[in-house]
What does this fold into?
Amino acid sequence: MASPIPQTQSTLEQRETYSLIGANKVNGTNIYNPKGDHLGEVDEVMIDKLSGKVAYAVATFGGFLGLGQSRYALPWSVLSYDTGKSGYVVNLDADTLKKAPRYENEAELSDREWGTRLHDYYGIPPYWL
Amino acid sequence: MASPIPQTQSTLEQRETYSLIGANKVNGTNIYNPKGDHLGEVDEVMIDKLSGKVAYAVATFGGFLGLGQSRYALPWSVLSYDTGKSGYVVNLDADTLKKAPRYENEAELSDREWGTRLHDYYGIPPYWL
It folds into this structure.
């Protein structure tokens, strides 16, 4: 899989900036903290049909955080892709992730009041603004 | 699957406006023209990792358009979801779909020049603007 052409920093940046990915391929992608501890995986990508925006990555935090198979919705913007790790990095401590607003069923993810609460919790503007 | 509560127009609108969907569930969704002819299916949803926007629905137009298993990238905004049909409707004639810019491999979808050409072809602004 070695590239015959040496990659310059600018082509790497460009590739990362512009690159599209099949939503399917995001599922199962590992999530790490900045120290490199494996936190969990992306289970599903939730998209907003109307605005065409990615709303949430639904993640499970199994091993390191010990949250079993519970599903957590992470605003897409808290995930940054790290090509070196081939995974997403979230710069949030375990306690913050553990205490984040939960949801009972998938329909609740569409609820804007719930969504506002989640984005407020993470201190970021909602994806629909 | 009958709802015990009669749906008013406003709740239907609200549901459609706000509803999120798992990207996985979009795959395989049927695509129709406004007359109701079945054109094909969504094969994959391509998302832009950085902007968090849905870029394209990669579609196959098998039967009606006779385009075999060729994959076409449709800007997300040309698809509108029709709850009655449980599928997407594209208001474009067969000839327009057939003559749309093609791509050789998935990496080409990330190319902004190609993307500009595709969006120009459909007369809509690129998803990244």
